[in-house]
Amino acid sequence: MKAILTIILALFVSIPSFAQVERKVVIEHFTNSRCSICAARNPAFYTTLEAYPDVLHIAYHPSSPYPTCIFNQHNPIENDGRTYFYGIYGGTPRVVIQGDVIPVQNPLISAEQIDSYIGETANYSVILTNEKLSGNNYKVVMQIKREAGTDWETIQAWVGLAEEEIDYAAPNGENLHHDVFRKWVFKDTASINPAGSSRTWEFEYQMDPAWVEGEMFAYVILQDLNTQKVLQSGSSLDTPSGINKPEIVQLSNVLYPNPSNGKVFIRTEMLDKFTQAEIFSLTGNKIGTYTDLGSIDISGLQDGMYLMVFTGADNQIYTSRLVKSAH
CA-CA distance, 164 to 111, in Å (whole number)? Predict the structure, then answer.
């Protein structure tokens, strides 16, 4: 599942300094395994998120109104603490997008509401890795870079661990639980000034026996100290986060010319494998979708590195690095 992490990291280091980058969208989802309303509304919510693989989703399980939820009992203080942070303790399901609390509604969030946050820019970029050291010991490495902006500021950084999928027959009838929050490994303020500056942190932790090792990932949310607005977010996942994530196959030498300043082509022997291609930016936002794969015009892209994601005829997902160059 982690096969293309090194490519993502290689792409990030090419982001130019002193220029804003795309702001990754994060949706924080407050639900409960004993909540019948959650069971009724979550399926439509997940269906909506399937259309947004570039959106990071995290599910917290507060104790109100059902303190016997097993996901809450695993870490009640920190699950409840996130609801206190947003002032929404007391009921589920609830949704927060980019630090903005969505009023109680059905559906939990609409495509139009998500669309209104897509394409925003940010002054910060983040790189996050989650690596095994030995035995049950792991290490999260976080790098935050100030890409733009002149105001001297301090931000709030939240680094958490979550489990991608948990198969559990919950009392409310839900059987599959997505991106389940497990614990914080870092909660503190950070200052990265001026533009062009970067800082790196390392956090070690031990794998809990209740967690499935291959499903764990780290994520980070950077927020404004005063407004709670999300300034940037990211995760250690290989691909942009979403619901029902497929396995990934890394490809090399599938595109030519690469770099390119105009059109790129898929090598003839690989062309019949794919039904669709998508281009993603370094921060996980989708740039475009292509079904005519004879040639792909990238002349309108800014110079830099991108991730090309192919959907195979067998529904397998493949990825390759793409470089747009002026020459």
Answer: 22
> Residue 132 CA to chain centroid, in angstroms?
20
pLDDT band at 5 (very low <50, low <70, confident <90, very high): very low
Alpha-carbon distance 210 to 231, whole Å? 32
CA 247, CA 263: separation in Å to the nearest integer?
A: 28
Q: Are 215 and 23 in contact (CB under 8 A)?
A: no
Q: What are phi and psi of 172, to 5 degrees?
A: -85, 0
Residue 9 reports pLDDT greater than 50: no
Report the run of H or E that residue 273 belongs to, with start and end.
Answer: none
**pTM of the shown model:** 0.73
User: Given a cut of 50, is residue 1 above it in pLDDT?
Assistant: no
What ranges make up the beta strands (E) of 90-154? 94-97, 100-101, 121-122, 124-134, 137-146
- Report how far residue 6's alpha carbon sits from residue 252's, in angstroms, rounded to the nearest whole number: 13
Q: Is the pLDDT of residue 11 over 60?
A: no
For residues 15-30, average pLDDT = 80
**216-254: burial string, b at 16+ Cβ within 10 Å, e else:** bbbbbbbbeeeebebbbbbbbbbbbbbbebeebeebeeb
Candidates 258, 251, 250; CA nearest to 322 is: 258
User: How many whole angstroms separate alpha carbon 137 and alpha carbon 42?
Assistant: 34
Per-residue pLDDT band at 144 (split at 50, 70, 90): very high
Inter-CA distances, 316 with 92, 181, 275, 276, 312, Å:
35, 27, 10, 11, 5
